[in-house]
Amino acid sequence: MQALLDTLAPGSDEWKLALSLDPSRLPAHIAVIMDGNGRWANQRSLPRVAGHKAGVEPVRTTVESCARLGIGSLTLYAFSVENWKRPQSEVETLWRLLRYYLHREMPALMKNGIRFKAIGRIEGLPPSVRHELREVMERTAANPGMTLNVAINYGGRSEIVDAVNALLDQARREGTLDRLRLDEDLLASALHTAGQPEPDLLIRTSGEMRISNFLLWQIAYAELYVTETLWPDFDRKELLCAIQAYQKRDRRFGGIHASGQRNLDEPILEAVPVPAR
Ligand code: FPP
Asked: Which atom of ligand 1 is least distant from the CA of 55?
């Protein structure tokens, strides 16, 4: 947290927002559906790819701010398994921007101790992109700080299917298939995010109220924060607002809050009629 405060102008809105956060209750994992690049470009009569290009700066700011805040994991949704349906020129621009980002940000990833991880069906990507991703993953693997997961050629359903198949293959290899029994921990151990905390906060930009096949297993208890802001306009202030909103949520994980609610419930229960047999 202090590392972020050190970069902010004292008295600025961002500084006040950062100071208002409780450092002991920061989300351990933030996931982001970066949406609205196309609309941002449309509003300016620009080609869609101009929106993606403008979307690189908020990636940089979000990654650096989360690392400085002390967030454990940040997962960005960059390209879904469904995004192949887009025009080839748009898809190729996205690969170029990803490679540009990785190349340009390598020193910042090292300086901030960030571990980079590409999650998704990486083997389905063009060889140049695969190569770049592997190189950045290897070079940052020993970094001690935040894990930055970038979801590329990613789908929540395909991740679960791949995880189950990997467990079946492993059991077949080890001759334990007849004894294999899945449970939640075993399945989670075969997901791309194995070993990382589940997202506490899921941010989606551009106002869409959808999950879009993102981290379906992992977001079971995530708090959702949807902002109308289009991704290219998402800045540090918005990020801090999302975390502030998260800290005001009452997270119960299916239980009840440990306040004096029992006394309030009792008269209601007494009033519930018991059907006569
Ligand atoms: C969704 O907007 C955004 C994407 C599919 C791509 C996100 C990519 C970037 C932000 C740039 C590069 C990424 C990294 C990690 C460096 P959309 O095109 O669906 O917008 P629309 O719904 O308004 O059409």
From this structure: 10
Q: From ligand 1's centre to the CA of 56, what distance in Å? A: 9
pLDDT tens by residue, 65-121? 999 999 999 999 999 999 999 999 999 999 999 999 999 999 999 999 999 999 999
pLDDT in tens, 202-231: 999 999 999 999 999 999 999 999 999 999
Pick the CATH number of 23-154+199-249+266-272 from 3.40.190.10, 1.10.10.10, 3.40.1180.10, 3.40.930.10: 3.40.1180.10
Is residue 265 flagged as an active site residue? no
Distance 170 CA to ligand 1 centre (A): 35
Helix or strand or coil: residue 78? Answer: strand
Other CB atoms within 10 A of residue 230 CB:
24
- What the block records as the tokens of 265 is 């419930």
Query: Is 59 a pocket residue for ligand 1 (Cβ < 6 Å)?
Result: yes
Give the CB-side neighbour count of residue 210, counting CA atoms within 13 A.
7
Whether residue 169 lies in the annotated active site: no
